[in-house]
């Protein structure tokens, strides 16, 4: 069970709304940082050190990345733009892991220029990378392993054998052999087999799978991995009846596996890394919108000024996002479909959701928008991207991205009267 209440009062949100147009996303910096510290605490035992590379796609705002950098997080990038964001924040070198698929040469070149750890998605990318970098591979390379039928899948990524990512087991061994023969000196091993996974044992099994592979790579090829990357995918309790992953438990169990495998085989120290995004920022973001309309036809609808363009997860995956109405906690409850204004019937934040019945004009808070919220936003129906606000404490908050204007939206059109 997870307590799902807005950390902000109606008055605090109205104070922001007096200066920032609704809808907006607001992020709780203190809670985000405390969570990052708890994550690092759970892995403070790792002899080779622990690092989480924040998956930038979850919340690509440099102000947030700066705060996470201060907590020791690096950046996980999968595109040129994400690399540039890291560079601007001062996350460079091996504090970046570039985990990309279907990658164009210029993105590999940018990653190499920044000294990022390049994590290849396919065996054919060894040659592609070598050519892109003018015939010379970096001294450190990492491969993404796709265990296929050897590992059960999870709901968002699906079965590993149907996922487009990574090397097969045979390709993995062949790939490291090629790297070794080409004179690459330093190696890492990566996998990412889960997304939004709440079962803590899943991550322990993933770690065990990689520990076993590290031993096998050492024994069969003499390739020594200096780090493992367990990927991201730690889930968050979007629903009140769900429980957050117990990070301390995961850390403890992975330690047991490390000792029973890596230490027992006389290997190590090995650095353990992850590239979680969702669990770093997801629970600490809130999309705030205002009730515009109530409509009673075959069903009851609550119409907000926010739409799927601000948070597409419910429309795209049918995801649950908890919704509260600050200041109306004790109001009589009513069942609504809670909608935005797009000309798409899946522009619904919730279907048949019972909430305290708001009044028109009330602010409504849609929880867990801190990952894949603003970043997955779009401009369909000429809707403008919203502002983002960073909340530090009572009375101390700042706009970290202003709301888009129509001039921003039309800026790429060369047409009289538009820009
Ligand atoms: C999306 C992604 C992540 C982050 O996943 P979360 O679910 O946000 O933890 C990490 N690595 C790769 C390669 C990804 O594509």
UniProtKB/TrEMBL annotation:
Pfam families: Orn_Arg_deC_N. The modification N6-(pyridoxal phosphate)lysine is found at residue 57. Its cofactor is pyridoxal 5'-phosphate. It comes from the Bacteria. One of its GO terms (molecular function) is diaminopimelate decarboxylase activity. The active site is at residue 343. GO terms for biological process: lysine biosynthetic process via diaminopimelate. This is Diaminopimelate decarboxylase. The lineage of its organism: Bacteria, Pseudomonadati, Verrucomicrobiota, Opitutia, Opitutales.
């Amino acid at each position: 069970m997870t307590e799902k209440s807005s950390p902000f009062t109606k008055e605090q949100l109205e104070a922001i709304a007096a200066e920032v147009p609704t809808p907006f996303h607001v992020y709780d910096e203190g809670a985000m940082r405390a969570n990052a510290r708890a994550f690092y605490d759970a892995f403070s035992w790792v002899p080779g050190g622990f690092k989480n590379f924040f998956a930038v796609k979850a919340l690509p705002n440099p102000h947030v990345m700066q705060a996470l950098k201060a907590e020791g997080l690096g950046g996980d990038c999968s595109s040129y733009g994400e690399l540039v964001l890291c560079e601007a924040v001062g996350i460079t070198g091996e504090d970046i892991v570039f985990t990309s698929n279907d990658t164009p040469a210029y993105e590999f070149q940018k990653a190499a220029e920044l000294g990022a750890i390049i994590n290849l998605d396919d065996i054919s990318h060894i040659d592609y990378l070598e050519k892109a970098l003018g015939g010379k591979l970096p001294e450190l390379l990492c491969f993404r392993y796709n265990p296929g039928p050897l590992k059960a899948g999870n709901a968002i990524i699906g079965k590993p054998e149907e996922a487009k990512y990574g090397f097969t087991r045979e390709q993995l061994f062949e790939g490291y052999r090629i790297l070794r023969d080409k004179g690459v000196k330093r190696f890492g091993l990566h996998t990412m087999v889960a997304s939004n996974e709440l079962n803590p044992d899943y991550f322990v099994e993933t770690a065990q799978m990689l520990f076993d592979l590290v031993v096998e790579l050492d024994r069969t090829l003499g390739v020594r991995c200096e780090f493992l990357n367990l990927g991201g995918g730690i889930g968050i309790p979007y629903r009140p009846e769900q429980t957050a992953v117990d990070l301390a438990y995961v850390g403890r169990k992975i330690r047991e596996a490390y000792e029973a495998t890596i230490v027992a085989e006389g290997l190590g120290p090995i650095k353990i890394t992850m590239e979680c995004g969702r669990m770093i920022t997801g629970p600490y973001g809130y999309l705030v919108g205002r009730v515009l309309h109530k409509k009673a036809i075959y069903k009851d609808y609550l119409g907000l000024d926010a739409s799927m363009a601000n948070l597409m997860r419910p429309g795209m995956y049918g995801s649950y996002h908890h919704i509260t109405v600050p200041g109306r906690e004790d109001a009589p409850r009513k069942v609504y479909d809670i909608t935005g204004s797009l000309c798409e019937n899946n522009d619904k934040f919730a279907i048949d959701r019972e909430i305290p019945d708001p009044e028109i004009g009330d602010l409504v808070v849609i929880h867990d928008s801190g990952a894949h919220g603003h970043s997955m936003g779009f401009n369909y129906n000429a809707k403008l991207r919203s502002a983002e606000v960073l909340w530090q404490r009572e009375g101390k908050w700042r706009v970290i991205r202003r709301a888009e204007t129509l001039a921003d939206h039309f800026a790429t059109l060369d047409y009289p009267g538009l820009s």
